[in-house]
Amino acid sequence: MLRLDDLHAQYGAIVALRGVSLEVNEGELVALVGVNGAGKTTLLSTVAGVMRPRRGDIVFEGEPIAGLTPETVVRKGIALVPEDREIFSDLTVEENLRLGAYIRRGRGEYGADIDRMCELFPILRERFRQDAGTLSGGEQQQLAIARALMSHPRLLMLDEPSLGLAPKIVDQVFALIEQLHRDGMTILLVEQNVTRSLAIADRAYLLNMGTVQASGTPADLRQDVDMESIYLGGGD
Ligand SMILES: Nc1ncnc2c1ncn2[C@@H]1O[C@H](COP(=O)(O)OP(=O)(O)OP(=O)(O)O)[C@@H](O)[C@H]1O
Ligand SMILES: [Mg+2]
Q1: pTM above the 0.90 mark?
Q2: Are 76 and 65 a contacting pair, CB within 8 Å?
Q3: What is the mean pLDDT of the chain?
Q4: Percentage of residues in the chain with pLDDT exceeding 70?
């Protein structure tokens, strides 16, 4: 479904991705792990069209998408929940969700989508008319994911969804990701919580200094890699 081929990206003179190739197949949950600065966020930003690749191809459902604008990438069916969530604090939960529906694939009933989100995330129904800034960290993460889902993505990319959340809320977020996966969503998950993400992933890639250092099933990765080197980045 998604294929990156020899992807290079840099910030001025700082090279962040040096020839990354990877694949996400339809229906898969692929984990992308690696220490701070490995290039995980850069990779997602480049796929999402927020950053332009220096070199290499990004192919989504057979179509090259490298260099398209973020809006066009969303229209193609890829949604990103960014590391900092980018919730609009002064807008209500409902308004945030509506912004997610602004760009979408195909048509669909806005009301039906809202109902589906409120079923998936009951807290959002309770807080529907409340400013998003008043939500807790975990609730904001749920809102960020719900907003991404409002665009009807075929591929959902999550950047550190468990970051800064209390352990109990982290459990909820991982349970939610598993549920979305079971329901058929294709997911590319960036996490520093290596144990948790390998536990739910079909396959995983270990990124190190802008290159893929290892890849395979979670079992392969656990066996091949000096796990200590990635646990330094976090996890439990
Ligand atoms: N806006 C920026 N300007 C300059 N350099 C940047 C910028 N953003 C990231 N970098 C550099 O690019 C490299 C990759 O960063 P990136 O944010 O992709 O890593 P990451 O794997 O997401 O790290 P983390 O786990 O800390 O989120 C790092 O060396 C980082 O310092
Ligand atoms: Mg990052």
Answers
A1: yes
A2: yes
A3: 91
A4: 93
Spacing, Cα 124 to ligand 1 middle (Å)? 32
Residues in the chain: 236
List CB-based neighbours of ion ligand 2 within 5 Å: 40-41
Type of residue numbered 152? H
Residue having the nearest C-alpha atom to atom 7 of ligand 1: 11
Summarised one tens digit per residue, pLDDT across range 42-97 is 999 999 999 999 999 999 999 999 999 999 999 999 999 999 888 999 999 999 99
Same structural domain, 73 and 164: yes
Q: Which residue type does 28 have?
A: E
**Residue 31 near residue 197, CB atoms below 8 Å:** yes
pLDDT tens column, 204-232:
999 999 999 999 999 998 887 766 555 54
Q: Is residue 13 part of a domain?
A: no
Nearest alpha carbon, ligand 1 atom 24: 36
Q: Is residue 208 part of a domain?
A: yes
Per-residue pLDDT tens digits for 23-49: 999 999 999 999 899 999 999 999 999
The residue whose CA is least distant from atom 1 of ligand 1 is: 11
Residue among 35, 41, 84, 231 whose CB has most ligand 1 atoms within 8 A, to mutate: 41
Give residue 126's domain range.
87-152
